[in-house]
């Protein structure tokens, strides 16, 4: 395997790990903020979203695998990197006010 391809694979996996690590790091803050806003099961909601990532992963692997078979590995890797990077960027700019307020 060429070094350029190895570097691309490592960069993609690093970005994916960074996405998981960032969500895990902000999960306690997000849970506390949701509790403050009035959500009764905020911790379960946050960790449910975190678990959903691991449940959806096989489906994403199937879809991206089919895409890679048709178009090629490089465009598939670029697509996955863009999607993962976009999700991480969206978490960075997440305004908590968009979640809404619960009035009890």
Structural features, described:
It is a single chain. With 104 residues, the chain is an all-alpha fold. Helix content is 82%, strand content 0%. The protein contains three helices and no strands. α1 packs antiparallel against α2, α1 packs parallel to α3 and α2 runs antiparallel to α3. It is elongated. The termini are far apart. 2% of the residues are buried.
Label this structure with key terms.
single chain; 104 residues; mainly alpha; 0% strand
User: Main beta sheet, described?
Assistant: none
Question: What is the approximate shape?
Answer: elongated
Instruction: Kindly state the number of beta strands.
Output: 0
Q: Provide the β-strand percentage band.
A: under 5%
Share of residues in helices? over 70%
For this structure, the quaternary state is single chain
Low-confidence stretches: none
Query: SSE string, helix = H, strand = E?
Result: HHH
Radius of gyration: 17 Å
Structure annotation, total helices: 3
- What is the first-to-last residue Cα distance? 59 Å
Mean pLDDT: 82
Task: Classify the secondary structure makeup into a structural class.
Answer: mainly alpha
Q: What topology does this entry show?
A:
Blueprint (H helix, E strand, L loop, with lengths): L2 H35 L4 H30 L1 H20 L12
Helix pairs in contact: 1-2, 1-3, 2-3
Give a brief description.
This protein is mostly helical and 104 residues long. It is built from 3 helices and no strands. Helix content is 82%, strand content 0%.
């Amino acid at each position: 395997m060429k070094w350029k391809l190895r570097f691309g694979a490592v960069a993609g996996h690093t970005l994916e790990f960074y996405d998981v690590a960032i969500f895990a790091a902000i999960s306690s803050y997000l849970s506390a903020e949701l509790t403050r806003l009035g959500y009764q099961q905020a911790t379960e909601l946050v960790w449910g979203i975190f678990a959903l990532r691991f449940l959806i992963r096989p489906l994403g692997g199937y879809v991206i695998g089919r895409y890679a078979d048709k178009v090629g590995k490089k465009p598939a890797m670029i697509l996955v990197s863009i999607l993962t990077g976009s999700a991480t960027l969206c978490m960075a700019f997440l305004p908590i006010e968009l979640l809404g307020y619960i009035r009890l």
